[in-house]
Design brief:
- With 309 residues, this protein is α+β, with helices and mostly antiparallel strands.
- The chain folds into 2 domains: 141 residues, Gcn5-related N-acetyltransferase (GNAT) (Aminopeptidase), CATH 3.40.630.30; 146 residues, Aminopeptidase (3-Layer(aba) Sandwich).
- 29% of the residues lie in helices and 31% in strands.
- The chain contains 8 helices and 12 strands.
- Strands 1-2-3-4-5-12-6-11-10-9-8-7 form a 12-stranded mixed β-sheet, with helices on both faces.
- Helix 1 packs across helix 2.
- The chain is globular.
- The mean pLDDT is 95.
Length: 309
């Protein structure tokens, strides 16, 4: 049986999405988002989406490129997915080899990958010389059955009101400014410079999975004080893209309020499963998600490999 690694073509989108859903069932993944992300990646990232075929059928893919906005030069990523039915048959090795060769050609010094906390995945990474770093927790909430906790008291505070991202369609800059401020405080192993407004519009605001009607924004005296981003797939799945509170508004329960409103809207819209991911050291958001009743769905590890001295 022949394996072939090649560039992604738009006609591959459904096969790539199917492989991702098989390997990572908690992600909001559609053929539309696969094709859009491949076409719209910033040029400075040198982003490529490679696929692997077995006898002409696409069975996996890898997203590879540079963290062009990173404060650490030479930092790269390579996120590989293989259909669950194809594990252990060489597709993953073929993809990772191709990704590393491409990054080495770009002069990348270090490559970062995410790996499930499962024996086959961890063993695969460590045999290829990757070392374990920080963890991330994926959590699941059954929106169809689990009741939401009572509305936070903040809902009735003077000057507090709830809106949706759709209300900012004419001018999303206040959301951009809040997002940039909150992202800078997110724990992680990649420190990136703030993206310009035009880039944020093109790659965050215009993302096809973003559901503006389900993305909730808490205002205090008219200022964006918290927000909770919703990504949906049109088939009942909801992913919390980001929940944040700018520093000046923290400690008031506003993140809970925004996320509560988003989840309530999502359930009313027919979403049945909600997922979210948090860095293992993000204690505040882990606590908030426990309050909502989220349960652990998967643990991921960041693995790192030096490509050049």
């Amino acid at each position: 049986m022949t394996l072939n690694v090649r560039e992604f073509r738009p006609s591959d989108a459904e096969s790539v999405a199917a492989a991702r859903r098989s390997a990572f069932p908690y992600l909001v993944t559609t053929a539309r988002t696969i094709a859009w992300e491949a076409a719209r990646a910033p040029a400075a990232r040198h982003h490529r989406l490679l696929v692997v075929e077995r006898d002409g059928r696409v069975v996996g893919s890898t997203e590879v490129g540079l963290y062009s906005d990173s404060e650490e030069p030479g930092l790269a990523y390579a996120d590989t997915t293989v259909h669950a039915e194809e594990r252990g048959r060489g597709a993953g090795s073929a993809l990772v080899t191709a990704a590393e060769e491409y990054l080495a050609g770009l002069g990348a010094a270090k490559v970062l990958v995410w790996t499930l906390d499962e024996r086959h995945a961890v063993t695969f990474a460590e045999r290829r010389g990757y070392t374990r770093g920080r963890s991330s927790r994926v959590q699941r909430l059954d929106l169809a059955r689990a009741p939401l906790p009572p509305l936070p008291e903040t809902a009735g505070a003077p000057g507090v009101e709830l809106r949706t991202a759709a209300d900012f369609a004419a001018d999303p800059r206040p959301l951009y400014e809040a997002d940039i401020a909150c992202t800078a405080d997110e724990p992680g192993d990649v420190s990136e410079r703030p993206v310009p407004y035009a880039q944020w519009l093109a790659h965050t605001w215009e993302h096809p999975a973003l559901d503006r009607e389900l993305t909730s924004v808490a205002l205090v005296d008219g200022a964006v004080a918290a927000y909770s981003v919703a990504h949906t797939d049109g088939h009942g799945r909801y992913w919390s893209g980001m929940t944040g509170t700018p520093r000046a508004f923290r400690g008031r329960g506003l993140a809970k309020l925004a996320k509560h409103d988003s989840l309530r809207r999502a359930r009313a819209a027919g979403c049945v499963l909600a997922f979210t991911g948090n860095d293992g050291e993000n204690a505040p958001m882990l606590a908030i998600n426990r309050w909502f009743g989220y349960q652990l769905a998967a643990t991921e590890w960041r693995y790192v490999r030096e490509l050049a001295g």
